[in-house]
Amino acid sequence: MSVAGQLASAPLVVLARRALGGAEGVWIAGGAVRDAALGREVDDLDLAVAGDPAAAAKAIAREGGGHSFELSAEYATWRAVAADGSWQVDLTALRGETIEADLAERDFTIGAVALPLSGGEPVDPFGGLSDLENRLLRVVGEGSFASDPLRLLRAARLAAALGLEVDLGTISLARSEASHAAEPAGERQLAELRQLIGGPDPLRGMALLDELGLAPVVLPELEALRGVEQGPNHHLDVHGHTMAVLEQALAVEADLGRFGGERAGELTAVLAEPLADEMSRGTALRFGALVHDIGKPATRSERDGFVTFVGHDRDGVAVVGGLCRRLRASRSLTRHLQALTLHHLRLGFLVHEAPLPPRRIHEYLRATEPVAADVTLLTIADRLSARGSGPFATEEAIEAHLALARQMLAAALDWRRDGPPRPLVRGDELAAELGLGEGPEVGELLAELEAAQYAGEISTRAEAVEHARRLRG
């Protein structure tokens, strides 16, 4: 089917045509044309409008039973969106006097193709359809990256997501402009990184950041991991190990049944949950794989040939905080990534105690809340990536970790579903029973009672009060 035919059947195009009729001066452009040419489903629509796009946006919103609003006064962009958020159409005033002039201002040739909304042949002044056929990503012009350095990140993201090769001239141009990659606002950088890491091929996306010279500029904390050698449990330096953990995280994500058994569906639902900054927990887990060892360069120590990174989990929390501030990540995402970093070693320290008694499971769940399931999955990816010659890299050691992780994942899912045990006695009641005043002791006693209740050591109010009384001597 032709591009025009593919677009004609897309629900959003049908909606826009119903709303705007045979209006002249409106073109379908950008991603919708690209996706139609690739035979992909068209699930978003960008329209270029000669004149003020506000009236067109309002007409589409009325026709679709949604609403419209100005998205950017600077770029004269409006958005029509469904009442339930199920669709959106973005409309932008032409950048230039003609559609050809507008397309000349775009980033890559594959997005510089337009079709009249009312019907007609593609306007393709830069050979974008040919590049799509040849699976090639190429800039529209020499000034593409200079006019908006965010396009540097977008190049890596699009090439990875769409399975395109980057044109050699575009690679050269990107490398020459790479030093400007961190100039766009942090939240714009984060949006591109979110789509790259949350996309279908984040490993290639990360490799492209390296190939285009962008990684040291945009993610210097990761670049600092290069050449940081590790001990015998690891066969790679910290940077190589980090990429291996991301690879294993993707493998874990694709085979949750191996680790969750019959509860794999629950784990799938956990990873699909929206978290923050338009990220799911699954995408955040991939980010967590990238940053979990980010504190290692500052904590590396070597004595008699033995390498340690004592405290890299704690130091990593501060480094993650700085990275997130620079990218203007939300507090929720920052705390989530910091929690993954802080707790990624905890399960490994418990392997020698397996099978764990209930109190130790409770301690882990409380300490890692609310990322118990997430960080346990991260530890699996981390351990599967340690393939050195040391004692913690043997098949036996790895299997022991995986067995404990399976046990902890089940407990974490139970905790998410049921929450902690419902208190047998309130704090004020306990204080009255024991003659205690205000202070931290009541809180400490309640925490102990919760652990005892989780372990099945107490089950009634009277037992809880008596247990607390014994604790106080």
Structural write-up:
The longest helix has 24 residues. Helix content is 56%, strand content 9%. The chain contains 27 helices and twelve strands. Strand 11 and strand 12 form a beta hairpin. It has four domains: 126 residues, Beta Polymerase, domain 2, CATH 3.30.460.10; 84 residues, Hydrophobic Seed Protein, CATH 1.10.110; 199 residues, Hypothetical protein af1432 (Orthogonal Bundle), CATH 1.10.3210; 45 residues, no CATH class. It has 473 residues and is of the alpha+beta class.
Tags for this model:
473 residues, Hypothetical protein af1432, single chain, globular, two-stranded parallel sheet, Hydrophobic Seed Protein, alpha+beta
What's the SSE blueprint?
Elements (H helix, E strand, L loop, with lengths): L2 H6 L2 H10 L5 E4 L1 H7 L7 E5 L4 H11 L2 E6 L4 E5 L6 E6 L5 H6 L9 E3 L11 H6 L2 E2 L6 H4 L2 H13 L2 E2 L1 H10 L8 H12 L4 H10 L3 H4 L1 H4 L14 H17 L1 H5 L3 H9 L1 E3 L2 E2 H11 L4 H4 L1 E3 L2 E3 L3 H15 L4 H13 L2 H5 L7 H11 L3 H13 L10 H24 L8 H8 L5 H15 L6 H11 L2
Helix pairs in contact: 2-4, 8-10, 8-11, 14-17, 14-23, 17-20, 17-23, 19-20, 23-24, 26-27
Reported for the largest beta sheet, the result is:
6 strands, mixed
Rg over CA atoms, rounded to whole Å, is 27 Å
Write out the strand line-up for the largest beta sheet, numbering strands in chain order.
3-4-5-2-1-6
Counting helices, strands and paired strands, the structural category is alpha+beta
Could you name the ranges where pLDDT drops below 50 across 5 or more consecutive residues? none
CATH architecture assignment of the largest domain: Orthogonal Bundle
Helix run count: 27
Q: Number of DSSP strands?
A: 12
Helix % is 55-70%
Q: What share of the residues does DSSP label as strand, in percent?
A: 5-15%
CATH level 3 topology of the largest domain: Hypothetical protein af1432
Provide mean pLDDT, rounded: 93
CATH class of the largest domain: Mainly Alpha
Total count of domains = 4
The global form is: globular
The N- and C-terminal alpha carbons lie at a distance of: 82 Å
